[in-house]
Design a protein that fits this description.
The protein is of the alpha/beta class and 572 residues long. It is built from 17 helices and 20 strands. The strands form 4 sheets. Strands 13-12-9-8-7-6-15 form a 7-stranded mixed beta sheet, with helices on one face. A 6-stranded mixed beta sheet has the order 5-4-3-2-1-14, with helices on one face. The protein has a 5-stranded parallel beta sheet with strand order 18-17-16-19-20, with helices on both faces. The model has no long low-confidence stretch (mean pLDDT 92).
Length: 572
Amino acid sequence: MRVALAQINTTVGDVWGNVEKMTGAVGRAVDAGAELVAFPELTVTGYPPEDLLMRPSFIQENLEGLETFARTVPEGITCAAGFVDLNGDLFNSCAVVSGGEILHRYHKRYLPNYGVFDENRYFREGSGAPMIRTGGALVGISVCEDIWYPGGPAREQALAGASVLLNISASPYHRQKGAFRERMLGVRASDYGCYVVFCNLVGGQDELVFDGHSVVFDPEGRLVARAKQFEEDLLVADLHPSESLIQRLHDPRPRKENPEREPEIVSVPDHHSAAKDAVQPRVEPYPSEEGEVLEALVLGLRDYFQKNGFSRAVLGLSGGIDSSLAAAVAVRALGPQNVTGVLMPSRYTSDLSNTDAVALAKNFGIDTQTIPIGPAFDAYGEMMRDAFKGLPEDVTEENLQSRIRGNILMALSNKFGWIVLSTGNKSEMSVGYSTLYGDSAGGFAVIKDVPKNLVYRVSHEVNRVEGREMIPNSVLDKEPSAELREDQRDTDSLPPYDVLDPILEAYIEEDKGISEIVASGYDEDDVRRIVGLVDRAEYKRRQAPTGIKVTGRAFGRDRRMPITNRYKERKS
């Protein structure tokens, strides 16, 4: 049996554009001799459609799109494609299509409602565990979350004789998730003695990135094929369903169990394909963690611009590591011709920072403008003289500089239609080390979910991938500073990032309490201070622009904390 995994980049709401992509992929799959073609979860609507699902017109158009697609599927090929079904309520569904007809509509049974997922808001749980009978083999159908549990439809299908488990998915990316996902799928394959065929979505959708990374495992749990990551791809693989029977003859465990229900079997016309040469299995290489994060940022930014009709980005270039990485991502995503860097020096900006910003722009080939903020800052000082009379300078004057810079970038955005990229990282956002309506202003926050230490590692990866020093070594080596007052360093306000980042990860991503973090070896005063900063900055984060999720728990739809909140962990 030859299968093709059509790992395509859909756009939420673009029903007819998505259908066009599906049709093109079927044509390529037919040319490759495939008999079974899989598409990602909710292919027709794009994922996640969110409150578009509240609109009856959208649901109807999605159903019309599926019917149109079905008419294009020729005899001799079967497709499994995601859509939204309407049958008294809404269901996250997989259609089995062959010979111009919709033969079956499977309704997803396990609806995720954690992290970034909110499927119980929209869908009713389905039932059943259908199998396709094709060419003498039984293929079990499931959707995304259905296969993450060691039971459910996959188990029922395997116990009823399925030799192939086909799962269509929209599994969003975070760093190192791909390796975890592969381990889980390999276990399902070996436990059930079946091929596991997993087709995942690829592309950016607001803050989410879907990494593709579609895979095929054999009945012993060995990886057979892996598609590209962060790119559209058509992964073709030959399966030998008889291997599943051999595996079961040597593994008596399934004989001890019986399926809870008898799966429905959907027969499709036999595929009398002409003899063809075997497909050489393709296993795309797995990148490093830093390389993976870099490509996720690039794809997320590129798709955010392309799918929303934006063309050009503008960002402040300070000569620091954060703006340098943001610029590097923007150039890789949009091309240097579509990126403008703005230098906005003040009396506190060092010569080295100016030099580094210019060097970076030259290395990446982007246009720059230099707009000093001194005159505006002096004007603000004059305007506020009476109001601030008798008071010393403090963080107020520091934040004024940041807000002037934010105003300049937004003025350029308004005048030329450019989108402002804010350049703050996750460490800063976590503890509120940013200025509302200043450096946090923008249309898209490129690295908002990238902790500071990872910013450095990904920046080194940029230079490694480019094969030369694109981000100057002086940027990578110098101590971080906001340069809003004389001789300022980030460590004046924060613990070193080697201390800060692990505490933030424990508190934000792992939900560990103060006592647990202290028990792992961190100073209690540091931990309590950092936790207090995180809690107090929630109102700031709520007003931040959207940005790309790359960690296990990002701010926004992933981590939802109340702004008004008096809970404080007591001292033991």
